[in-house]
Structure formats: C-alpha cells, structure tokens
Amino acid sequence: MAKFVPVEPFDIVIFGGTGDLSRRKLLPALWHRWLDGQILPTSAIIGTARSEMDSAAYRQLAREACEKASGENWDAKAWAQFEKIVHYVTIDATKPDADWPALRKLLTIDAKRPLVFYLATSPHLYVDICRAIGIADLADEPARVVLEKPIGTDLESARAINDGVGEVFAERQVFRIDHYLGKETVQNLMVLRFANMLFEPLWSHNYIDHVQITVAENLGLEGRAEYYDRSGALRDMVQNHLLQLMCLTAMEPPNDMGDDDIRTEKIKVLNAIGAIQADNVRKQTVRGQYASGLQDGKPVKGYLEELSSSKGSKTETFVAVKAEVRNWRWAGVPFYLRTGKRMSARHSDIVIQFKPAPHNIFGQGVESVNRLVIRLQPDEAVRLFVQIKEPGPGGLRVKSLPLNLSYAKSFTLRYPDAYERLLMDIVRGNLSLFMRRDEVEAAWRWVDGLIEAWEASGYDPETYAAGTDGPLSAAMMMDRDGRSWWKEV
Ligand code: BG6
User: Fold this and answer.
1) CATH no. for residue 130?
2) CA 376 to ligand 1 center in whole angstroms
3) Which among 153, 214, 229, 236 is the best mutation to test ligand 1's pocket, defined by most ligand atoms within 8 Å of the CB?
4) How far apart are the first and last CA of the chain?
C-alpha cells in the first residue's frame, strides 16, 4: 500500500497559469496530490497570466481541467476544499512594474516555507520573468524556479537562458523539468539496474549486443504546429527524453540517490556519446516526415497538410540514430534511438539485447539470444525473454518466451502522472530527477553537431506514410548491421 507523506505547506506561483500545460498537467497533478492528502490546506496555488480574470473565474477554469482529468472519479466535496487554496493574479510577469505587490499579498513569505515559481510559459520569456522575480525581491531561498523544456533551441540559446536565470537564482534553486524522469517506469529503470544483482554483471559490452530505445507516438501535431515546425523530433524528443533514457540505461551506478550523484553519472554518458559527422550522418541517422496515411483504419493528413503552410517544411517528425557511448563499459555496443509522430502505435520501449550463447548445441534455426524488454508505456511491463523447450514429443523445439512482470497485474494502485511526482519533489527540494545545467548543454552540443551534419550533407527528411514505423531507411539501418527493430509479436 502506498503511503503519502504530506509535504510541508508551500506556495506555488504558476506563470502561464491559464495555458495548456497548466490545464492539462499542472493543475490536475496538484489536485491529485491534494486528494491523496499530500498537500496541506495551508498551501497556496496561485495562477498568473496576462489575461484579466479574478480568482473565482480561475477556480472555474481549474475545476474544468481537474474534472476532465478525474473523469468518473470526480469528487465535488473534495473540490470545495481544494479550491480554497487556488488563487489568481493578473500579471505580465516579464515586467518589473507589473502588479507584483498583488502577488506578494497572496504569498506567505517565510524563510522556511518553499516558494515555487513555475514557468509554464514560452522559454523566450524565462530570463525576463526571472529578472522581474529578482527585482520584486522574491528570489531568495527557499524560493525555487521550475523551467519547462525546451530550454533553448541550440547550445547558444540554452546558455543564454541558463546565464540569465543564473543571474537571479543559484543552480540549486533551478529545477529543469524533463517529464520522462517523473514517469514510474523510468524511475524503475534505476531500481531494476541497481537493486538487483542479476543484471549488473551482464550490463556491458561483454554480454550486451546492442540497445534499442524507441518512443513512438501515434498522434500528429495536436495544434502545436507553430512550435513543432521550428523544433522537429530531434529537438523535441531526442535532445531531452531519449538522451535521458539512454543516460539512465548506460550510466555507472551512482554512489547514492543524492541530487548530484545521479546527475554526475548522467553527464559522463552525455559527454561520451560519439559526435555524428557529415560523412557518416546518412549511415547513422534517419530523418523522416510523415505523409498522409491510414491510422487505425482511418485516413489521416500528412505533416505538410496539417501544417497548412504554403511554404512547405523540412522539419523532421521522425528520427532514428545509431549512437555510441565511447567508454570502457560500452565500447562497440550500438544504442539505436528512434522516435516519431504518427507511427503505427504509441509505445515506448527499452530493449537490451544480449549476445548469443557462444556455442549452439541445438542445431540450426535455434535462437539463443536473451532480451530484456522494458515497456515504459502503455501496458507498463518488464519482460525477460528466455529460451525454453516447447513441450511435446518428437524433436526438440526451442521457443523464446518472456518472464513477464506486468504492472497492471502486479499493482492495483492508480499511476500518478509524472508531474505529480515531480511537483512534490520540487516542494521537497529534491533535485535528483531534474536536469542540471551541464546536462542540458551537453545534450545540445551533441544535437547541434547532428543538425550541422544533416545540413552539411543536405539530408532532407524522407517521407513515410502516417500509421507506419517510419521511413524504410530506418529498417535498413538495422538490416545493414544484421539486426532489426524489436516488434512485439
Ligand atoms: C513532449 C513533446 O515533451 O513529450 C511532445 O513536446 C510529445 O511532442 C510528448 O508528444 C510525449 O510525452 P508522453 O508523456 O505523452 O510520452
């Protein structure tokens, strides 16, 4: 049975409080933590934005968002209590002369009480908002600031944001969110690796043939055309989520779960990823863009039609990369990363494929390869594929079957959304699941190199039909290495 320990009373100010992230994720996450008794009634949630609105109207907005997230489990009685801690202030947070005193009145300034500034706004506003917070004299510890991705669009812009934020907040006050790190199954990666003795002796080039990390989505642009077209799959997904998954898979055991122990191990992996150059970019990467196609039997538009821009676009909606981690543990082990929109199904998996047994005594056609398949979402599971003898007389048939740990069968608990865990960690001041400045910048350095290589080699996206697994070249990239993408049968 999960035990929810209430966090100390806190104030959270959400800039961009009426926006999509607040409505879809932040307000429902806080509501669910309230329902589990983790947030005490002396806390305050303060939405802010430029729109003129009073707290009553904001409570209504929040209620609609939380009702939608709760579905059939809506608890109107609990809401009546929760809404008492929800407030709103109209403020243009980039302006030091905005109505900061009105915000201050809603805060309980206390040297021991956590004060969270959540920047759910466009990243180009981060620095100005932080400066205004500083001028309003609200940035001293225990204040902390939360930055959503994307932090910049390349190394230079990321540095400018980090520098600007750093003028006001010390690094230990800065919580850079990658929501994948708050997912239950992603956190379980560390438990699986470091709370079991079974895997560690095998976890290296000695026994692992290769690793695959796939984050496949079946959705398209979902109304985010403007942002997405400037970003593309490499910046939107690989720079953060996929590289973070790779770090957790490849890193050395941290000394403990302390803030900097995990992050120090992750940065070593990021710094060891081999740069991709113009002369190998077509061998080691695949860039795709979806065309129209069929998804679940229904016709869907191609990327360019969804974009409805007459100018066309060379933005990729699919990326596959063969990456290397150049260190002692992983020498020679490819890490194949793949992500895309409008793929055949939504699934995120990490597949560790072990080397075949050194000598096969069972004759031709018998596979002797083990795979550890970590299904991050949906149908969360950990499956270890082992070979077994298929029962029956006459001959000896060997079959690969999984030892199957299904989350749905093992746990009855409601899964908290990643933001629930992350928000409570922010209040507790626990930085271990947040990205440190050097991690973000190291990830951009590698991504910038890859973008330069694409540009230098004139590699424009190849098209793939919506509802498929990306361009044919992605399968061919594996085929050239005598491997294939894992597909659940
Ligand atoms: C976001 C990306 O960070 O992650 C989106 O900007 C993507 O494009 C989303 O759809 C995927 O997150 P999840 O939790 O649905 O896998």
Assistant:
1) 3.40.50.720
2) 13
3) 236
4) 33
309 has a pLDDT exceeding 80: no
Q: Of 124, 148, 172, which one is at a domain's C-terminal end?
A: 148
If asked whether residues 112 and 238 sit together in one domain, one would say no
Alpha-carbon dihedral 214, 219, 225, 230, rounded to 10 degrees = 0
Nearest alpha carbon, ligand 1 atom 9: 237
Residues having CB within 6 Å of any atom of ligand 1: 217, 236
Can you spell out the DSSP letters for 193-228? HHS-TTTGGG-STTTEEEEEEEEE-----TT-HHHH
- Domain identity same for 213 and 116: no
The model's pTM is: 0.96
**CATH number for the domain that contains residue 344:** 3.30.360.10
Same domain, 300 and 407: yes
- Measured in Å, residue 464 CA sits from the centre of ligand 1 at 20
Residue 340, pLDDT above cutoff 70: yes
Are residues 322 and 451 located together in one domain of the fold? yes
Considering 87, 179, 241, 347, which one is annotated as catalytic?
241
- Report the percentage of the chain scoring pLDDT > 70: 99
Q: What residues have CB less than 8 Å from 241, skipping those under 6 apart? A: 178, 180, 215, 339
Residue 1: pLDDT band (50, 70, 90) is low
Query: What does DSSP say about strands 318-324 and 398-406: parallel, antiparallel, or unpaired?
Result: unpaired
* Strands laid side by side in the 334-340 sheet: 398-406, 381-389, 371-377, 347-354, 208-216, 334-340, 318-324, 285-291, 462-465
Q: In the chain, how many domains are there?
A: 2
**Dihedral angle at the C-alpha atoms of 475, 480, 486, 489, nearest 10 degrees?**
80
Annotated catalytic residue 241: yes
Q: Does residue 159 lie in a domain region?
A: no
User: Do 476 and 482 touch, CB atoms closer than 8 A?
Assistant: no
Percent of the chain residues past pLDDT 90, beyond the cut: 87
